[in-house]
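Trying the structure run again after the queue cleared.
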Amino acid sequence: MVTASIGENYLLFELLNEPRTMEEIVKAWIIYGRPREPKAFFELGERGLMKKHLERLKRLGKVHLEGDRYMKRHPTL
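Done. Tokens:
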């Protein structure tokens, strides 16, 4: 089980004010704060952790995937 910090969840949720691909989410460096070396290793970690965060947000009904883009789920009026 991944325990996310409030800051990480907030930053990811704010990033999703616009639809984003996983690649765009990874390049935001929410977990590591900036690109690090070896880049492939840290991108893999960033991708894995963001996937876990997104899965949790999907289970909570806050985010959905449309095509290849994640976006906030807006409550129906």
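The chain has three helices and three strands. Worth checking whether this holds up in the mutant runs.
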